[in-house]
Amino acid sequence: MTRSSTLGELRASGYADRTVKQEIAANAAARLRHGRPVVEGLVGFDDTVLPALETALLAGHDLILLGERGQAKSRILRSLVGLLDEWLPVVDGSEVGDHPYHPFSPAARALVAERGDDTPVTWVHRDDRFAEKLATPDIAVADLIGDVDPIKVAEGRYLGDEGTIHFGLIPRHNRGIVAINELPDLAERIQVALLNVMEERDVQVRGYTLRLPLDLLVVATANPEDYTNRGRIITPLKDRFGAEVRTHYPLTVEQEVTVMTQEAVIPTGDSLPRVVVPAFMAEVLAAFTRALRAAPEVNQRSGVSVRLSTGNFETLAASAVRRALRTGEPRAVARTADLVQVLSAGIGKIEFETFEEGRETDILERLLRRCLLEVFRRRTAGLDLGALVAAFDDGRQVETGDLVSAGDLLAQLDEIPGLGRLLGALDVGEEPALAAAALEFALEGLHLSRRLDRTDLGPAAFRYTGPTSIQQEFRG
User: Fold this and answer.
1) Is the whole model's pTM more than 0.90, yes or no?
2) What's the chain's Rg over C-alpha atoms?
3) Per the CB 3.0–4.6 Å rule, which of 12, 341, 351, 421 could disulfide with 299?
4) Exposure string over 6-34, b if 16+ CB within 10 A, otherwise e
5) In degrees to the nearest 10, what's the CA dihedral of 369, 374, 378, 382?
């Protein structure tokens, strides 16, 4: 619609007088009517999280998202901005986004009383109507609500004059969305101040009560453990949220892979080779994350974020790029040897139980080997790799690592029995770089299946030998 410049023009245009919750509900309804979700880009939430979220928004409820870290809670909060109207009229110069029809701040009321229909109106973009605050114990009431401005008092106003108040984050985003991450981390006195805003719509600053008919959608996030009766949130505040929406991690390996490939930022540029992460390598990373979420050695109260999967995917791709740059290969294809860099980069992102101190690396290596074997067996089920094992019977050996080129790896075997069937099982093409990735994955899978031996030559370098060689070395 045409953006009016005065109050009179706004009334004449027929601008709808509705609250922010009505505005969001109407825009959410429009999306649903056209078959679109209220939040785009979420994976695995269609039948679980989204129905609860859509219902809460249509009901006009303040809501709290409960879930472990890395379950897209912040993404959901920020996506709600898209449900606001693109532009919103406010009284020109208003600190608190006064509605031109219903101004409540002293300055806006005085301006409308003086100018009437000639009151100037300005328009605010929806991106400026969203405020997000990470709750920390050091947050003060002044940060969220406001405080008396000593400069205004020094100018001659009385301390009890409402015009002396400097508004905080919440009043300044009136007629918008206020999001508070990790709500239980707020000190109790700050929670009480927030309770007043949500229920009574008043602000108490240094004993002076200011009635503010704030128009807000309040959304928050919390860890489910902190939101119980034993948690760190006051009971009356819990009662003010009209809806609780539970989030969760991806339910399947396929969903985890989809999130990884969707969220990961892969190195690109004219000076960099094109990156390919084979599907079987992505499945190993996804299975690794899911294994960590079930491992008793890992502190499950802190959770294992999807960001770990995404970071591991990016590290795997970057290790492949490093090899391609060092060896001159035109394409960077992720291989099993690159998983060494994944372990090195990700160990600090996982919280272990205290009694596992000192064993972190061993635990991660064991879980990763188990996941690689799981994917290998699933991918090669029904595939006879006996001929590949037999190729090592005469003492042949293959050396590989994160800096061994695809050509050098493939050249160590005159022919690779059953390579075509292996490539088909792993769903990769016959390009040398992809064939090398498939071969290295098969060799590691056969080693973990105890059909080949592996000797570590360095942090990310290995030698594979056959069973006959193992027996000969043992006798020697």
Assistant:
1) no
2) 30
3) 351
4) bbbbbeeeebeeeebbebbbebbeebeee
5) 80
Q: Is residue 2 part of a domain?
A: no
Do 216 and 289 reside in the same domain of the chain? no
Strand partners, 208: 205
User: Can you tell me whether residue 450 is helix, strand or coil?
Assistant: coil
The CA distances from residue 182 to 53, 134, 191, 404, in Å, are 18, 7, 12, 46
Below-50 pLDDT ranges, the chain: 469-476
Q: Please tell me the predicted confidence (pLDDT) of residue 381.
A: 92
C-alpha angle 467-409-346 in degrees, rounded to nearest 5 = 90
Contacts of 154 (CB under 8 A, 6+ apart): none
Cβ pair 54, 62 in contact under 8 A: no
What's the confidence (pLDDT) of residue 162?
A: 62
Closest-CA residue to 60 (of 116, 18, 90): 18
Residue 158: half-sphere exposure toward Cβ, Cα within 13 Å: 4
The pLDDT of residue 472 is 45
Same domain membership, residue 352 and residue 211: no
